[in-house]
Amino acid sequence: MNEATRESLRAGLQLGLAALVATALLAGTYFLTRDRIGAAEHRARMQALEVVLPAARYDNDLLADTVQVQAPAWLGDEATTVHRATLAGAPSALVFETVAPDGYGGPIRLLLAIATDGRVLGVRVTTHRETPGLGDDIEAGRSDWITRFQGRALGDPPTAGWAVRKDGGDFDQFAGATVTPRAVVRAVHRALQFTQRHGDAIRAAAPGDTLRFPTAPDAPRAR
């Protein structure tokens, strides 16, 4: 074996050893940190849920007690994750990761908590692509508009009131941006209607189940 071949083999062995050491270090780092990373992710997700559902309202693991719901006529075409809150073993609320599909800039993603008495506990926008300076007033950090759903329920206001003022409803629109708040109002109203109609089925399902609801909301009656 000549010197050039020996040098090539030596270099190959050194590279292989370096790769092995690097792999071992990465694997060791992963095993040492995965629990902490998982715990941090869990805390972050729980903190997001607690913005719409106060911690005093539940004592179960909201991230473990979920079902998937496919109800396109009610909640949009995407599957909706529903977190089921319980307190002392009794149902206390449902938290929807839902969407307003008809925002001006596209879908508006929402977290929406509804108590077992049918009242809204909280609503927050998680992501959107609405026009900066106009439609982004749906964000809690920009205005208090989104907080005005808290405490509302079906019948409060009456059905006709679940619209923006431009459409004869009870909810303000934004100057130069009616489509955005209109989409959110509709999404919240539909979620309340869906909960009234199908909430018992959601609460009775096993954790992890996927439920499908092909029905649609009742058409508004002529006035």
From TrEMBL:
Enzyme type, top EC level: translocase
InterPro entries hit by this protein: FMN-bd, Ion_transpt_RnfG/RsxG
UniProt EC number: 7.-.-.-
Membrane-spanning parts: 12-33
Cellular localisation: Cell inner membrane
CC per GO annotation: plasma membrane
Membrane topology designation: Single-pass membrane protein
Keyword Transmembrane: yes
GO biological processes: electron transport chain
Cofactor(s), by name: FMN
Location of FMN phosphoryl threonine modifications: T178
Record GO terms (molecular function): electron transfer activity; FMN binding
Classification via NCBIfam families: PRK01908.1, rnfG
Subunit architecture: The complex is composed of six subunits: RnfA, RnfB, RnfC, RnfD, RnfE and RnfG.
Protein's job: Part of a membrane-bound complex that couples electron transfer with translocation of ions across the membrane.
HAMAP family: RsxG_RnfG
Official protein name in the record: Ion-translocating oxidoreductase complex subunit G
Biological source species: Arenimonas metalli CF5-1
